[in-house]
Automatic annotation (TrEMBL):
Pfam families: DUF1501. This is DUF1501 domain-containing protein. InterPro entries: Alkaline_phosphatase_core_sf (IPR017850), DUF1501 (IPR010869), TAT_signal (IPR006311). Signal peptide: none annotated. PANTHER family: BLL7424 PROTEIN (PTHR43737), DUF1501 DOMAIN-CONTAINING PROTEIN (PTHR43737:SF1). It comes from the Bacteria.
Length: 427
């Protein structure tokens, strides 16, 4: 038994010890053994191993969701409801999350300097305002660059939904840290099977011929970007032969679990995200779009919040009962809030001055509210949190060295979250 255990890699040994401890002692070892296995050598002790980042594209109305203002005349028809944490209220659109408030930390004092969608989304994903030709890395790229993958076969950074060219990619880091984009969560990973007319021997022969033909080119142009193409091919072949491909197959889930997440693309995306982090993917972003409610704000929000509430509630429960919530940081982010005043089309306009984001799991203490807005939800009244602060908090949970300076190819210095400081009170 001991000889077999020695043959396992470090992560597999850790999992074996965790399962044994739970079976024989009724305890888990993650708090004493696990965290340092995925830590950055120069960062703080991590509280999270992986991230599921839920991005609400378009700008979520904070006063109609996580920061209701029942006494404000333009609050509209939505009412505030109590949660399972006394003294904390959320919108009636979120009854499921209201009953899971003990797992959530609401940040009601977010503020941004970017009031348009594209620069706001870029800022939220990178912690930097977009300037010139420099492309800043997203958190998934920083994580895999600084801390590495925990599954050598699967990509460490995956994006589900949204645009393939959305910000938050590898930026100036190596292209291997670029997120793998999946347009549809229930179609699996495309183009990973050999054509039926080609057997494995012929496949190997073709690869060898391709390598020989590329050899002179690689010698003549030995750059990182050129070598990255070879790395991509090698990683793709390894993945083609791996049993980890099952992680992308939602049909492996019981029907009851799939129903709990809902039948929307967003629901399927979050279920896939859970499967991926369960298989060792470090960073998964799931996009839920449509939050740009300039017209008929409340009517649209009833359609948008229903899958949000059902799916995130199911995700939190699923992670919790699988023992994954303590090591998975769940993030709900958006580029800005919406104006407290309703316009002539019963809509709300862009409002970067004050908005809300949410964190759960991954060492975050649930059942709390950080910061506050004024009586209308117009301005931050207490404990302002900038976008770089928010990103620094995520990086801090992952054990990344937020003060470490990394130089771009042009020689310019950058940090994971610029000058942002983590909100340590949330942990």
């Amino acid at each position: 038994m001991y000889d077999e255990l020695k043959k396992l890699d470090e992560l597999s040994r850790r999992k074996f010890m965790q399962y044994s401890a739970k079976a024989f002692l009724g305890v888990g070892l993650s708090s004493t053994l696990g965290n340092n296995l995925w830590a950055s050598p120069t960062g703080p002790m991590p509280t999270a191993k992986s991230v599921i980042y839920i991005y609400l594209s378009g700008g979520m109305s904070h006063i109609d969701t996580f920061d209701p203002k029942p006494d404000w005349e333009d609050q509209g028809p939505v009412e505030a409801i109590g949660t399972n944490v006394p003294g904390i209220q959320v919108s009636e659109y979120l009854p499921g999350l209201a009953q899971r408030m003990d797992k959530l930390a609401l940040i009601r004092s977010m503020t941004s300097t970017q009031g348009a969608h594209e620069p706001g989304t870029y800022f939220m994903h990178t912690g930097y305002a977009k300037r010139g030709t420099i492309r800043h890395p997203g958190l998934g790229a920083w994580l895999n660059s600084m801390s590495g993958k925990t599954n050598s076969t699967l990509p460490g950074n995956i994006r589900i939904g949204g645009s393939n060219n959305a910000p938050g990619g590898a930026g100036f880091l190596d292209s291997k840290f670029e997120p793998l984009h999946l347009g549809s969560p229930d179609k699996g990973l495309p183009y990973v099977k050999r054509h039926h007319s080609i057997d494995e021997i012929e496949m190997e022969e073709r690869l060898q011929i391709a390598q020989m033909m590329d050899l002179s080119f690689h010698k003549k142009y030995p750059s990182k970007k050129v070598n990255a193409y070879g790395d991509v091919y090698a990683e793709a072949i390894k993945l083609m032969k791996s049993s980890d491909l099952e992680a992308f197959d939602l049909n492996k889930e019981p029907q009851s679990v799939r129903q709990s997440y809902g039948n929307s693309n967003f629901g399927k995306g979050c279920l896939l995200a859970r499967r991926l982090v369960e298989h060792g993917v470090r960073f998964v972003e799931v996009t839920h779009g449509g939050w740009d409610t300039h017209n008929d704000n409340h009517e649209k929000l009833t359609e948008l919040t229903n899958p949000l509430d059902q799916t995130v509630s199911a995700l939190l429960d699923d992670l919790y009962y699988r023992g994954l919530l303590e090591e998975t940081l769940v993030v709900i982010g958006t580029e800005f809030g919406r104006s407290p005043i309703l316009d002539g089309n019963a809509g709300r306009n862009h409002h970067p001055k004050a908005f809300s984001c949410v964190l759960a799991g991954g060492g975050i203490q649930g059942g709390q509210v950080y910061g506050a807005t004024d009586e209308r939800g117009d301005s931050v009244a207490e404990n302002s949190v900038t976008v770089p602060d928010f990103n620094a908090t995520i990086a801090y949970a992952l054990g990344l060295p937020i003060d470490k300076v990394v130089y771009s190819p042009s020689g310019r210095p950058f940090r994971v979250a610029d000058k942002g400081q983590p909100i340590t009170a949330l942990f």
